[in-house]
Amino acid sequence: MSTGGSRRRFAGVAVIVVALALVTPVPALAIVGGEEVPVGSYPSAVYLSNGSELPMCGGVLVGPGAVLTAAHCTFDTAQAELRVVAHRQHPAGRDGATRSVARIWRHPAYHPYDGGPSSGNNDIAVLTLDRALPYPAAKLAGDADRDHYRPGAMATVLGWGRLADGGARSDTLRGAAIPVTDDRSCAATYPSFKPGLVVCAGDPRGGKDACLGDSGGPLVAGNVVIGIVAAGIGCGQPGTPGSYTRVSGYLADITAHSGSDA
């Protein structure tokens, strides 16, 4: 593995099992086909860095001192070096606030992206910060938010990742509006798909997607976080939606480890 976790990428559907076994996360500093969005409109969006304060993954504030992210984002950087940067529009800036990580909780049933039948399942983690942040926590999807997971419902994926597969790094927070995909299409794309625990989203025509460096970032419907960026086949390819950890399926775990009463 390389330094830093980022959105998993696969070469193509036909070779997905082989690619899962070979691919490793690549640190990257944005959303494909999106546009700049003001961080003030999404004050709970944060990013993870390895001390350089440049983004390697995304995350979302779920309590004054707790951040939700992808489990695979937490392996390659030592906890002592891991930083959470909040409310910073441009990574090169000095606005917002930075916090160290005091504790990491990973889902105990997380399976790395190793090509096995459970590859990538339970890709979720909660980071406890050394000090609280002065920004509002996100609202998390629960049972009452089922309509947000309806196929065709629109959501926005946020991040500071690459602008294209193999492309340049973004210098600002970006977002892209994409539709939620039906479970059958998601299962056809990702063999380890688990109903109720994974949701897919992406423009079937391609061109709008999360990309490298966006892992762990939020997929939001209005002001509700419905997913966490987990994996993808390339970035923005037609007919290949991105895979997201479904927040409603892990709400009890998230609240237990974040101090949130969502």
UniProtKB/TrEMBL annotation:
Pfam families xref list: Trypsin (PF00089)
Domain Peptidase S1, residue spans: 31-259
Segments passing through the bilayer: none
Biological-process GO terms, alphabetical: proteolysis
SUPFAM superfamilies: Trypsin-like serine proteases
PROSITE patterns attached to this UniProt entry: TRYPSIN_DOM (PS50240), TRYPSIN_HIS (PS00134), TRYPSIN_SER (PS00135)
InterPro entries: Peptidase_S1, Peptidase_S1_PA, Peptidase_S1_PA_chymotrypsin, Peptidase_S1A, Trypsin_dom, TRYPSIN_HIS, TRYPSIN_SER
Coiled-coil annotated residue ranges, if any: none
Top-rank taxon, per record: Bacteria
UniProt entry keywords in alphabetical sequence: Disulfide bond, Hydrolase, Protease, Serine protease
GO molecular function, a single term: peptidase activity
Family the UniProt entry places it in: Belongs to the peptidase S1 family.
Protein name: Serine protease
Organism per entry: Amycolatopsis minnesotensis
